[in-house]
Design a protein that fits this description.
Subcellular location (chain A): Cytoplasm
Low-confidence stretches of chain A: 20-26
Low-confidence stretches of chain B: none
Strand order of the largest sheet of chain A: 1-4-5-6-7-10-11-12
CATH topology of chain B: Rossmann fold
Order of helices and strands of chain A: EEEHEHEHEHHEEEHEHEHEHH
Number of helices of chain A: 10
Structural class of chain A: alpha/beta
CATH class of chain A: Alpha Beta
Function (chain A): IGPS catalyzes the conversion of PRFAR and glutamine to IGP, AICAR and glutamate. The HisF subunit catalyzes the cyclization activity that produces IGP and AICAR from PRFAR using the ammonia provided by the HisH subunit.
CATH superfamily of chain A: Aldolase class I
Oligomer: heterodimer
GO molecular function, one term (chain A): imidazoleglycerol-phosphate synthase activity
Distance between the termini of chain A: 12 Å
Distance between the termini of chain B: 12 Å
GO cellular component, one term (chain A): cytoplasm
Pfam families (chain A): His_biosynth
CATH topology of chain A: TIM Barrel
Helix content of chain B: 25-40%
Number of strands of chain A: 12
CATH architecture of chain A: Alpha-Beta Barrel
Number of helices of chain B: 6
Radius of gyration of chain B: 15 Å
Largest interface: A-B, 32 and 37 residues
Structural class of chain B: alpha/beta
Shape of chain A: globular
Strand content of chain A: 25-35%
Chain lengths: ~250, ~190
């Protein structure tokens, strides 16, 4: 039976892991490759590395990070952060990434997802969606969640699947950094209205929140950052807790 | 030991190379006929689309070279599917080394299957030291139908052949290079065949 996945996310800036609260106030949390290897040993099912470095040599730093991760870690990982072209994706996949995550570039040019899935197969194309409730509407936000768009989150999720996304990484900006639980209602709605896996992100604070996102939220995978980085929840305990709740986990 | 990896237009070869490096092997990535023929072991990995991959292999004459190999050959992911007779992915005639058919998952659950699933009914030296119900990592939309050359089974939507063996040809649908310690052991088993 296919298991639900626990995915630590490592936000990387200038080669170091950072984690923001509501995407602001970055704090340093160590070397991404060392941290990734530690999570892998602890039973993480996958890793996500988001490079938030904003320099002209962007692709170079991305590819260097991918190489180091792929050399040292034997579980799958996704790389994201400023990926905007076939060339970027090709460079990351050739360096050893399993999947790439595309966000703002897909908003700017939705046809990019058609091109990428045709070129590389949909299994390696993750579309990241940052969503926030604005006046009762769930709207997609771009540029690390800072810029609102007029795209309805649910319609956008469906469009991204149709264009060839293999997986959706749904981050609730309303929940991110709050530790008050995932956006279960929205996650469940999207998960049951698309036919590709959903990674839920934003709001993890307790082990119970993970139970909720897999049951109420119908998520295929759950992503979290600071609760793992700052050792508030350990992955082995989390997975054994979830197994005890009847949620299928890799042992 | 000389291990050659078939160089063609399928992606994600670098992870396999790194996984072999971790086992102390420096593989040669090549489409050179003599190098492939003279290698002790041949790996045929990759991710990609079946018809593009087959067209490329035919255009380079690699289809015949692979069929004629006598040393242990290990197909991974699309490599497994290409060793079969036919794939529903763009109605593609494959290498036909293993008489089995590749089908698309019916839309009864999420497709692609992405994540960790168990392997059972393990039947080959490839799985020496691997426990039944071990977890390995899958990413795929097409699967190999159950058949006489099946050496392991996975269940997703339906039970299917997640590993095959016929003569010197071995193949798995999952990614041993991404399957943590279990995958590492399977790669080691292939190297030690």
């Amino acid at each position: 039976m296919l298991t639900k996945r626990i995915i630590p996310c490592l936000d990387v800036k200038d080669g170091k892991t950072v984690k923001g609260v509501n995407f602001l106030n970055l704090r340093d949390a160590g070397d991404p490759v060392e941290l990734g290897a530690l999570y892998s040993q602890q039973g993480a099912d996958e890793l996500v590395f988001l490079d938030i470095t904003a320099t002209l040599e962007k692709r170079g730093t991305l590819v260097e990070l991918v190489k180091r991760v792929a050399q040292h870690i034997n579980i799958p990982f996704t790389i994201g952060g400023g990926i905007g072209s076939i060339e970027d994706v090709s460079a990351c996949l050739n360096a050893g990434a399993d999947k790439v995550s595309v966000n703002s570039s897909a908003i700017k040019n939705p046809a990019l997802i058609d091109q990428l899935s045709k070129e590389f197969g949909n299994q390696c194309i993750v579309v990241a969606i940052d969503t926030r409730n604005v006046g009762g509407m769930n709207l997609v936000h771009s540029h690390g969640g800072t810029k609102p768009t007029d795209l309805d989150t649910i319609a956008w999720a469906k469009e991204m699947q149709e264009r060839g996304a293999g997986e959706l990484l749904l981050t609730s900006m309303d929940k991110d950094g709050t530790k008050a639980g995932f956006a279960n209602e929205l996650t469940a709605y999207i998960s049951t209205h698309v036919s590709i896996p959903i990674i839920a992100s934003g709001g993890a604070g307790t082990m119970e929140h993970f139970t909720d996102v897999f049951t109420l939220g119908k998520a295929d995978a759950a992503l979290a950052a600071s609760i793992f980085h700052f050792k508030e929840i350990a992955i082995p305990e989390l997975k054994s807790y979830l197994s005890g709740k009847g949620i299928h986990m890799r042992k | 030991m000389k291990l050659a990896i078939v160089k063609y237009n399928a992606g994600n070869i670098q992870s396999v190379i790194y996984a072999l490096n971790r086992l102390g092997i420096e593989p040669v990535l090549t489409d050179d006929v003599d190098e492939l023929r003279s290698a002790d072991k041949v790996l045929f990995p990759g991710q990609g689309e079946a018809s593009n991959a087959m067209n490329y292999l035919r255009s380079k004459g690699l289809d015949q070279v692979i069929k004629d190999l006598k040393q242990p050959v290990f197909g991974i992911c699309i490599g497994q599917q290409l060793l079969c007779e036919h794939s529903e992915e763009n109605n593609t005639d494959c290498l036909g080394i293993i008489p089995a058919k590749v089908k698309k998952f019916p839309p009864l659950d999420k497709v692609p299957q992405i994540g960790w699933n168990t392997v059972t009914e393990l039947k080959s030296p490839l799985f020496k030291g691997i426990a039944e119900e071990s977890y390995v990592y899958f990413v795929h939309s097409y699967y190999v139908e159950s058949n006489a050359y099946q050496i392991a089974t996975t269940n997703y939507i339906l039970p299917y052949a997640c590993a095959l063996q016929k003569d010197n040809f071995y193949a798995v649908q999952f990614h041993p290079e991404k399957s943590s310690d279990v995958g590492e052991q399977i790669l080691k088993n292939f190297i030690e065949l």
